[in-house]
Specification:
The protein is mainly α. The chain is 62% helix and 3% strand. The strands form two sheets. It has a two-stranded antiparallel ribbon. Strands 3-4 form a two-stranded antiparallel ribbon. Helix 11 packs across helix 14.
Amino acid sequence: SSLQPRSCRNTDPSLTTRYWQAGQHAMTSVATAAEPVAALLPPLGLTRGAQGSLLGEFPVGIAAVLSWAFIWSGDAMGLSVMNFQQLGEQMIAILQGPAQRKMPADWSLCQCEYNRNEWLHISTSARAVLNAMDLSQVKQVLESLPCPHHTSGGYFHAREKYAFASTPEMVAYAWMPEYRATLADTCVVGHLVLMLLCSQRFLLAAGNGDQAALQSFFVHMQGIASILQLGTGDGMHEKENAHILDVTRCLRSSVFPVDGTRLRAYATQWLGEAFTSPRAAYAGGNPDVAAMRFLQSYRWHRGSIPFKERPCVPLANLQCFPRTASFASESCTHCCGALSHDASCFDAVWTFERCCQRDFDGLHCEEVRHGEERGEVAELVDFKCLPIEEHEADVAEKRLRTARDAVPKQESAIKQAEVALVEARQLHEQAIAAFEAASQRATKAVAALTLRIGEEDIAAEALDQANMKEVTKKEERKRAEEAVMAPRSLAAEIAEAERRHSEAVAEAQAKARATADRHAVARRARATEGRTQCHSDAQSAARASALELVAAERAAEAAVAEAATKATAALAAETDAKQELADADWSLELARRLEKTIRGQTS
């Protein structure tokens, strides 16, 4: 939804429409992974192996979608790592817009990394060689230079080795600081001058009979031609940045004292118009050094040397600073800088006056970069130098003006401070009153808390007592329940006794009837017969049975009386137990109410 049609740098309306349609298609196909990224290429008129620079023509949203698609599917369309990186960089360039893709006003291919001293030493050597009447006079200087026999078609003295042909592409992205830093480390113009010096070194060796040295002379001359041809090709980057790639334009304002126009003529003289037809001049069977050496009539004035490097060009004393600086204290531009120099670099022997060019003695210099205050690159760079006394006077005057301008502000600040002080005092008084009120509330709160703690202790003690009473009542209730159960057992015993009494009475009555029957039989026997021994025995048995019957009746009556007595006692005990149970229930209910009341007070 963020994609919006927008015009491309390509002016073909149909191409823009196709890009837009392809972007909409890409959003759907890539998000669902319904088809490979390769299916997105035909609508764009691209094929596998397309160069990353073509993608730079896409609208921003389309380029973003495609780059995501490449990562999502693992299909980079055959692009190299450099081209894929360029895609991202070109997307950033499109997002930032043309206004943000400018180079600073003081940047050119003649800017190098001078802090390490290497190119400053080469610049100093170049002045010695170009000012010599004869190359043999500077043979030692030439032999001290880092000159390989073959350049391998690239910047051989840079920390990162790049081919000469990669220069236009790097310049196309020089609006980014990291690319400018890479180009400064590569030092295109420094390699141009170094190869010129190396060509003179091998020319001198060839003139002294070293036949292989002549080939190295032409190798370095071909390297010079490669740099001089930058910006003359048909590539997009070369056409757009031809004015930057032509290093002969900035040579006269660089640290290197070489006339670019004369150097181009020199390369044409010995390599031909197309730089493809090398030739040499001979004298006595060997190359004629005097005829083939590089000469120029241009003489530099110090005003043409870059401002920041001027105190180090040429190096005032080659022994002051090593050819390769490892620390800031070994760097000429750090120690002798025009804007500021580090006094800790020098001592009683190696003094500032001995080691630095003194163009700015007694001056205070400042760099003014117009445009950077708006967050853009510098559109104009000025250097302002004044005598130290005048600078100090200006500083004092500025301080005075600042102080004068500050007086009204300070007076206003004092008035505001007075008002603030009155308000602060009022607030202080209010704070004291609030503090006292808070202290009183705190005292009351502490007293209330103490009282509450006491009440809680009393409530806890009452609760413990209630719990103890409840335990006691539970025990009493248990005993009452046992007492209630006891009469029931006694009633059962009484019932059992009555049952046994009834059985005894029935048994006695049965025995009495039996005895009565026997008595009747006996009486009838006496009526019919006289008293016999058998009759006497029956009479005795009847009397014994009657006595037993009387005893049984008496025992039954005693048992009934005892059972009645026990029943009466059991009924009395049951009545007492019921009364105790009622008392226990009342006490338990009272304890529960007391506990409920205590808990309510505690909460």
